[in-house]
Automatic annotation (TrEMBL):
Involved in targeting and insertion of nascent membrane proteins into the cytoplasmic membrane. Acts as a receptor for the complex formed by the signal recognition particle (SRP) and the ribosome-nascent chain (RNC). This is Signal recognition particle receptor FtsY. PANTHER family: SIGNAL RECOGNITION PARTICLE RECEPTOR SUBUNIT ALPHA (PTHR43134:SF1). Pfam families: SRP54 (PF00448), SRP54_N (PF02881). It comes from Euzebyella saccharophila.
Length: 317
């Protein structure tokens, strides 16, 4: 499949290129060291390459898959020059990712037959949940959709205020109660209000909670159950937000979280300003749950629909 299957807007590409700059610089400087003085891809080069991928946060399992694929090519093509390595890596990573049937979206959309479409956003403290909600609301609003936000992170007063700031910025309604109130009750109110307003999309913020705290996971379950009293089969999407700048830690969080609660999609944030962007490759390869969005900055426009071809294209571009 062509890497250029989706010709993406130059603005989006520019933001993505900029966001991945640190990851790319770090990766290619390691790669050039890995092949220094070598003209041919041999076992030494492959060993070094393995290390480059692992230290670029691609993750061990995905790295081994990539190395296997390259080894198979080296076995066929007895003399493979190191100057080709970049192209080959790009092809093999794209090939690997194309085996998963996700990451092909290019636009922010919601299914038409679900109204309101309810997204519950979860993830540990500080990963970028509230920011991602603000950016998402902005995208949907621009598409002409009617959005309602629910401040179900009632743990801190500042959390409610922060969502309010985003609601004001995007100019969408927010449903909130006072700090310390029951998150399930806020979610219930939000859905009730959304139904009354004939809203298209509801996005529920939740408290940054620890994945190993059973009681907190139970609370998420309660929030879901209460929402189902208003709209059947909600939430339609449980979006787990991961902080990409924590590299393998993000990977671990995804593992723990998906084990403890039902998660239907992932967002990887803070890819700008980190050299750990390779983690997105590992996460999209290793999880059945699709990476739907990536965060590439703090601004309102800095959320993108993750597209694996665009990502590889930008990374190796
Ligand atoms: N550079 C960068 N910063 C981001 C991105 N996404 C979020 N942030 C920043 O990360 C910090 C935490 O974001 P929040 O949205 O408050 O995270 P949260 O998960 O809601 O945090 P809690 O409510 O404390 O659990 C903020 O300073 C955001 O501006 C991103 O894609 N890039
Ligand atoms: Mg928050």
């Amino acid at each position: 499949m062509s890497l250029f299957k989706n010709i993406f807007s130059s603005k989006k590409k520019e933001t993505l290129d900029k966001g991945l700059e640190k990851s790319k610089t770090s990766f290619f400087s390691k790669l050039s060291k890995a092949v220094a003085g070598k003209s041919k891809v041999d076992d030494d080069v492959l060993d070094n390459l393995e290390e480059v991928l692992v230290t670029s946060d691609v993750g061990v399992n995905t790295t081994l898959k990539i190395i296997d694929r390259i080894e198979a090519r080296v076995a066929k093509d007895k003399y493979m020059g190191t100057e080709e390595l970049n192209t080959i890596l790009r092809q093999e990573i794209a090939g690997l990712l194309s085996e998963t049937h996700s990451g092909e979206e290019t636009e922010f959309t919601v299914p038409q037959n679900k109204k309101p479409y309810v997204i519950m956003v979860v993830g540990v403290n500080g990963v970028g949940k509230t920011t991602t909600i603000g950016k998402l609301a902005h995208q949907y609003k621009q598409k002409g959709l009617k959005v309602v936000l629910g401040a179900a992170d009632t743990f801190r007063a500042a959390a409610i205020d922060q969502l309010q700031v985003w609601a004001d910025r995007v100019e969408v309604p927010i449903i909130k109660q006072k700090m310390g109130s029951d998150p399930a009750s806020v979610a219930f109110d939000t859905l009730s209000s959304a139904v009354k307003q004939d809203a298209d999309v509801v996005i529920i913020d939740t408290a940054g909670r620890l994945h190993n705290k059973v009681n907190l996971m139970n609370e998420l379950t309660k929030v879901k159950r209460v929402m189902q009293k208003v709209v059947e089969d909600t939430p339609h999407d449980v979006l787990l937000v991961l902080d990409g700048s924590t590299g393998q830690n993000a990977f671990e969080q995804a593992k723990q979280f998906t084990k403890a609660t039902e998660v239907t999609s992932l967002a990887v944030t803070k890819l700008d300003g980190t050299a750990k962007g390779g983690v997105v490759i590992g996460i999209s390869d290793q999880f059945q749950i699709p990476v739907k969005y990536i965060g590439v900055g703090e601004g309102i426009e800095d959320l993108q629909v993750f597209n694996k071809y665009e990502f590889v294209d930008s990374f190796f571009g």
